[in-house]
Amino acid sequence: MSFAKKIKNVISSYIHNSDWLLIVSCVAATMYGLALVYSVIYTSGAGLRDFIIQLSAFVIGLLAALAISKIDYDIICRLWPVFSGISLLLVLLTFTPLGLKVADDQAWLSIPVIGTFQPAELLKITFIISFATHLSRVQDRINELRQVLLLCLHGAIPVLLVFKQGDDGTALVFVFIFISMLFIAGLRPIYFIVGMTLISAAVPIVWQRLDSDKQKRFLSLIFVDKYVSDIGWQQNNALIATGSGKLWGVGYLEGGDLPLYARNNDFIFTVAGEEFGFIGSLALLAVLILVLFALFKEVMTARDLQGKLLCGGIMAMIGFQSIINLGMNLRLLPVIGITLPFFSKGGSSLATLYLGIGVALSVYYSSKTRVHDTIFSRKNV
């Protein structure tokens, strides 16, 4: 077979065996997000640097995802020590003089050319890979107490590191990913019941240890009028801006009249609501649901537990981040600094998110072909 024919067969196989629903829905979400980020830049009079970084992260991330999708995910999982080691090292560097403090979080690194980078975003993906590998290796003994304790230790490492950075929101996302993957792996309900009981018992202790600002973020959800001019002003303005769009919105590039911190990041949903109205908000929700549906399909069709866990972990990450972010925007949950996947400004967040999408696409490709036909191997399963 000629080289040209081999290339043609590879391209044909990729086209016919790729999850185009996931690819198209992710691209659609990102394009919508880019439009919203540009609108914030335009209406605020800021430079185009943030938009260029976001666009570059999208292009690089998408190309990386397409490349990763052709790599056998078994090989990806076997390399978990390398990936985890790199991401953990980067997180640890945030505690050195190389780390940058943004708001209250010591969670960033300054990298030449790239700019600021949040290592916890990469750690999410590598944690999903390492935890999926761990769970698949102990699947027959997962309900033994010793294995449960080791799994909890595995999950505690990223949670405690990110919590130490001061990024409580991201730490919470790790917890949700951890719980979701344990559920997919088949952990007995009794362990979840015990865990929820312990968490409930710890709530009063955790509440006492929270600083006044974080306590007010919760209290402002209940005593709205009392905190509307204090800690609650941001969510109040977000609701007013979103509601001002009514059905069809005030028009693209016509929003931004109300002052709102992190309008292009944590509160990007308000831009959709204000400029595109209720219809635009529904479109945003629809495309996110489409992404989650595509990932759910991959969970159900994966050829083994490891593949299910990888796709389930990515789905949990996107799903819980979306729920928390939208809850913040609609004053249903406290503001804890969680971005909206695909939409919020953040080059490191977007690029690493596409790395996770690439892993999910790898699972889908393998499950469709039933052959490990990748750039690293070719063998029948």
Distance between the termini: 23 Å
Overall pLDDT confidence? 88
Please compute the radius of gyration using only Cα atoms. 21 Å
Number of helices: 15
Strand line-up in the sheet with most strands: 1-2-3
Contiguous low-pLDDT stretches (5 residues minimum) are 371-381
Strand content: 5-15%
Strands, count: 5
How helical, in percent, are the residues? over 70%
> Topology as H/E string?
HHHHHEEEHHHHHHHHHHEE
Task: For this entry, give a set of tags.
381 residues; mainly alpha; 3-stranded antiparallel sheet; two-stranded antiparallel ribbon; 15 helices; globular; disordered C terminus
Detailed description of the structure:
With 381 residues, this protein is mainly alpha-helical. It has one domain. 70% of the residues lie in helices and 5% in strands. The protein has a 3-stranded antiparallel sheet with strand order 1-2-3. A two-stranded antiparallel sheet has the order 4-5. Strand 4 and strand 5 form a beta hairpin. Helix 3 packs parallel to helix 15, helix 6 runs antiparallel to helix 7 and helix 14 runs antiparallel to helix 15. The longest helix is centred in the last third of the chain and has 34 residues. The radius of gyration is 21 Å and the shape is globular. The C terminus is likely disordered.
Précis, in short:
By secondary structure, the protein is mainly α.
What topology emerges from the helices and strands here?
Layout: H1 3-17, H2 20-44, H3 49-68, H4 73-78, H5 80-93, E1 99-102, E2 105-111, E3 115-117, H6 119-137, H7 145-165, H8 168-185, H9 189-209, H10 212-222, H11 224-227, H12 233-244, H13 268-301, H14 305-329, H15 347-369, E4 371-373, E5 378-380
Antiparallel strand pairs: 1-2, 2-3, 4-5
